[in-house]
Amino acid sequence: MSLQLCTDVALSKYRTVDGSCNHPKNWGTSFTPVARILPPAYDDNVGSPRTRGKDGYPLPNPRTISSYVHPSTSDPAARTIMVMQWGQWLDHDITEFPVVTNANGPVKCCGPNGTLPTGETNPNCFPILLPCHEVNFAGSCMEFIRSVGATDRDGCLLNPREQVNSLTSFVDGSQIYGSTEELATRLRDGTGILLKTKKGFFLPEDESASCILRPGTNDYCFLSGDHRVNVQPGLGAMHTIWLRAHNSLAKELRSVRPADSNEEIFQLTRKIIGALQQVITYNEWLPIILGTEASKLKLTSKTGRTTLIPEVDPRILNEFATAAMRFGHSLIPEVLPIGSRKVLLRKLFNRPAEVLENLDDLIAGIAGVSRVMSESVDRNFVEEITNHLFEPPAAPKGRGLDLVSLNLQRGRDHGIPPYRDYRKVCGLRPIVDFDDTEALGPYAAQLARVYKSVDDIDLFTGLVHERPLRGAMVGPTLSCILGTQFYNLKYGDRFFFDTDDSAIAFSDGKYLVLLIVSLYIIKIYVLSIRTSSRTVDIEID
C-alpha cells in the first residue's frame, strides 16, 4: 500500500483494521513480509530450507532433537497457567504465518497413515521424516508444509525468500476484531456497536471451521478475529471474555454518549479494548517474563508517555515468531483444571464444548484456583504437545504431532540462522564447546548427543536451554530478542495507548482511568474468579 492512500486516515484517532497508515512507512500491515534480525541462512542462499550445518553435514532430525534434547517431563513453575495463556493470547494478536495450500484445502505431504509419500508431491512439502526407532508415532512421516513466501508486485517470490505475517504486527486486539475489513465486518452484529454473539454471550459460529463436536449436542465451532480460536478451551475462554468485555463496554458508552454515532461508539470501544491489551502486556506480563529488563528497555508505563520513533520498525521479527515467542510452549501444563477435573490436553484440542459448558471453571483453573501451575521455561515440554498434539479422538496410537519438531522445522523452513549467531548480535560471548554449561545450561552434554557442532544448534533449542536471568523467566539471548520485539512494537506504534500525540492520545484523566480499569480486569478475570456466590482471590505470582 502506498502512503498516498493513507491521506484520508492520517489524522484519524482510530486504527485501521489491517494496520495500514499507522507507521510512517506502513510497516506492520497485515499480509506483508516480516522483518529479520539477521539475513536468512538458506541452503542455497535463496529459499531452500536450512538443512545443513557446519562443514555441510546434515542437521539432526527434528524429532531426534525433540526426543533426546527436550524430554517430555513436567517441571511446574510458581506461576499460574494465566502466564502461559496470556502469552498464547498475545501471540495470536501479532503473529501468524499462513502456509501453502491447494485450491481444495490443506496440502498432504505424507502418504496414508503416516507413510512416506510416493509419486510427485507439492514442491513446498517439507515433511519431518521419523527415525527408525520411533515408538510414539505410527509410520515414518509427519506432515509439514512450508510457509507462504512473500511476493513482489509482479507475483514473483522475493529473493531471498521471506515470509508473510497475516496479522497486523501491533498489539491492537486483532484476534478479537480481525486483521482484514472482510473479517471485521463479518464479526459485527448489525447494531453498529456490538460484536456478534451466539446464545447471547458466546462467540458466534464459524460453519466453515473444523473442530471436534460431540454427537447429539449443540456444540459448534467458534468464529473470532483469529481462526485458531478453537485450538484449546483456555484460548476460547480468553476470546469469550474479551467479546463480552467489548459488548459490555460498548453498551455503557452508548448510555453515557447518546449523541455519538454507532461507528464512533464501536471504534472508541475497540480503541479502549486494544489499549487494555497493551496495558496488561507491558505493565503486567512482560515484567514477569523479562524481569528488570522490561524497565531498562522502558517498556512499562512507569517511564511516562510514549513518543513515536519513526525509525523504529514495528514489523514482527522472523526470529521472534519462529523461535523466541515459542518459549511459551514450555509453559504449557499436562492438564487443564476444570472444576474438580484435571483433563489431559490431548482430550481438549479443538474441542469447544468446555467453553460452552464450563467457562467459569475454565477461567478459575487458568487463574490458579486449583493450584495447577504453568510449567517452567526450560528445555522440557510435556508429552501432551510432543507426542499427542492434535491427536484425533479414538485414533490409533501415534496419529498426533510433535510441537517441538514442528518448531524446529519451521525455523529451518524460514532459514533462521543458528543460535550462536544471535548470541553475538545480543552482545554475548561466543559458545566455546559443548562443555560450556555457563552458556548452554546444565544439559549441554545432551546437545552433544545430537549436534555435531555447537555452531549448528537451532535457535529455538538454544534459547530454551539458557539459564534464566535473575528475576526473569528467560535467559539472556531470549530476553534480548523478546525485548527488541516489544520495544519495536511500542515505539513504532503511533497508536500506543500512552502516546504523547495529543491528536490521538487518551486525556490524562482517561489515561489514569485506563490503568485503573486494566487492574480491575486483571482482578476480575485473572486474579479473582466468581464461583457460585463467593469470590476467590488468586495470586498471579
From TrEMBL:
Location, primary (coarse class): secreted
UniProt KW keywords: Heme, Iron, Membrane, Metal-binding, Secreted, Signal, Transmembrane, Transmembrane helix
A biological process from GO: response to oxidative stress
SUPFAM superfamilies for this protein: Heme-dependent peroxidases
Record carries keyword Heme: yes
InterPro entries: Haem_peroxidase_animal, Haem_peroxidase_sf, Haem_peroxidase_sf_animal
Cellular component, GO annotation: extracellular region
One Gene Ontology molecular-function label: peroxidase activity
Source species, domain of life: Eukaryota
Region (Disordered): 42-63
Classification of source organism: Eukaryota, Metazoa, Spiralia, Lophotrochozoa, Mollusca
Protein name: Peroxidasin-like
Keyword DNA damage in record: no
Binding residues annotated for heme b, in chain numbering: H329
Subcellular localization(s) per the UniProt record: Secreted
Transmembrane segments: 511-529
